[in-house]
Amino acid sequence: MAVRAGVGRGTVSRVINGSPRVSEQARAAVQEAIAELGYVPNRVARSLVTSRTDAVALVIPEPQTRLFAEPYFSDIVRGVSAELAGTDMQLLLTLVRTSHERQRLAQYLSAHRVDGVLMVSVHQDDPLPDLLKRIEMPAVLSGRRSGPEPVSHVDSDNVGGARLAVRHLVEVRGSRAVATITGPPDMDVARCRLDGYRQAIADSGHEPDERLVAHADFTEEGGREAMRRLLVRRPDVDAVFAASDVMASGALRILRESGRSVPDDVALIGFDDSVVARHTDPPLTSVRQPTEEMGRTMARLLLEEMATPGRDHRRMVLPTELVRRRSA
Amino acid sequence: MAVRAGVGRGTVSRVINGSPRVSEQARAAVQEAIAELGYVPNRVARSLVTSRTDAVALVIPEPQTRLFAEPYFSDIVRGVSAELAGTDMQLLLTLVRTSHERQRLAQYLSAHRVDGVLMVSVHQDDPLPDLLKRIEMPAVLSGRRSGPEPVSHVDSDNVGGARLAVRHLVEVRGSRAVATITGPPDMDVARCRLDGYRQAIADSGHEPDERLVAHADFTEEGGREAMRRLLVRRPDVDAVFAASDVMASGALRILRESGRSVPDDVALIGFDDSVVARHTDPPLTSVRQPTEEMGRTMARLLLEEMATPGRDHRRMVLPTELVRRRSA
DNA sequence: TTGAAAGCGCTAACAG
DNA sequence: CTGTTAGCGCTTTCAA
């Protein structure tokens, strides 16, 4: 290769890496040689000397649920992948099931086997973000554990979205006893959506009532159970804001089973814009968060951070919107 | 490291790679040194010399649809990931959107940047399997293009599953005019499910009628359109076998809009065991294919093939089963 | 600006 | 069985 272009190995390398310290003449010669020989640099050899891997990991903690089947993860993956397609960065998918796998992951990251990390669905007690900070590995979370994080993260406006939804139930549908089925208290996203609910209730002038608040775990089963509890505690409930579409679907089923016609008796609203919301019949009104855009933003942020070592971490909040699929 | 154990570099390497040509004594010394120094071998350096990458790519062609949101892909990913977790093979996720990206992928694979390839959702005209065969890269497909493939693949028993479903409609529900909404003819999976439908109709002794067959594209919109066509062509249709759950959901909506009550007037059956099938109300009876198991099998097959260069490719067919979620 | 040379950390071939 | 040696293909000083 160096011979073919009539220059030294060093010069070839400089051309490929776009160094400015190369004469036009040499650059042209090398580029011609590249074209003729169909030369493709060996990334592994490069990695060995640069100690970069040109790969980022997307970490998805995966408990018992089929979480991954939800559009949230798919959309994140799509967004990340789309953003990375323009670079020659590889996307490693890392599902973490067991605590053993968590430890292996920690080792893996500590060994700097990737250049950066994206994480979704972080729980309160997750030590990974701190580890990432400590080993100074560029990282971006979607969501956060609570309060300030040591690494960058992108979030959607959960509080605002929840307020939008609950206000819709109160003002447009005229509901008077709006309940909420929210997520586990150890997830910031659940707390925020609950906050939004409470704010909207306060704004409406209705009486807040803790019996109208049910915690669940973002699964359909959880949604069903929560709905049953709500019906016992406040049989007069006439609207439900569920903090996820799957829970909304579960609630819907219970309402139907209990003989209540939806939406005549009860208004139901989910959070995500999802398969479930769309395929439930009638489709649920819901709050859409721009999930794919969140994925793209995460990737962009990560790339920037990888290019600018030591840069301060950022927090980005993307807007949410109400999607009405049926008339009130 | 070699010094610490009081042996040569070569011996260290042999111990790490589990070579049998090492004395117990030396092995113990090295392992102790490893433990004390917390030594972790550098994979990149190893890759450079072995020219293996310890990574496999999962290729997902992704057209305009939100395909990835369907449980099929998620379950495949879960299965593959679970199987790979035991090895130290990395999983690269490769979504292919544009033809430009397809070409980049072809280059990428030709450059042997991964040790093996898993592919899902292959279409008739996909050249990738042939490329993989040509460059002798271990590869496993889920499904096939049509007839024999040059590489290994795992499939579910689509013909049998479709027969099961249609027989259920005919025998248990007593339907007389069973229609089918099937996938695009350029996908083997669609042709097989259509075959199964035809066989079951033939078995039942009912008159086959091409007006009862509608092709669609595995999307909900496609399912709706197909259902509309069917209602025009054979208003007496009293059962539908849809070759995917999403299409079944679309068909369901049209049936409801047309004032027909399901399941009183009409029986509907989907193919996959999915979020949609479960959340549709009432839940659809459906045919379940063991998707996660398919993912695991794909990964296992690939690992075997990587370990045994030159091995003949295999075809595996996994059974399907009928899942009844409501009484007839 | 550029060629030459020195490794990056590992494995594999080769003598012992 | 084991120590030594020679690279894998690239980037990066370091002189020129």
UniProtKB/TrEMBL annotation, chains A, B:
Record keywords: DNA-binding, Transcription, Transcription regulation
Stored InterPro entries: HTH_LacI, LacI/GalR-like_sensor, Lambda_DNA-bd_dom_sf, Peripla_BP_I
Domain HTH lacI-type: 1-50
Membrane spanning residue stretches: none
One term of GO molecular function: DNA-binding transcription factor activity
Stored Pfam families: LacI (PF00356), Peripla_BP_3 (PF13377)
Keyword Kinase: no
Top-level lineage group: Bacteria
UniProt name for this protein: LacI family transcriptional regulator
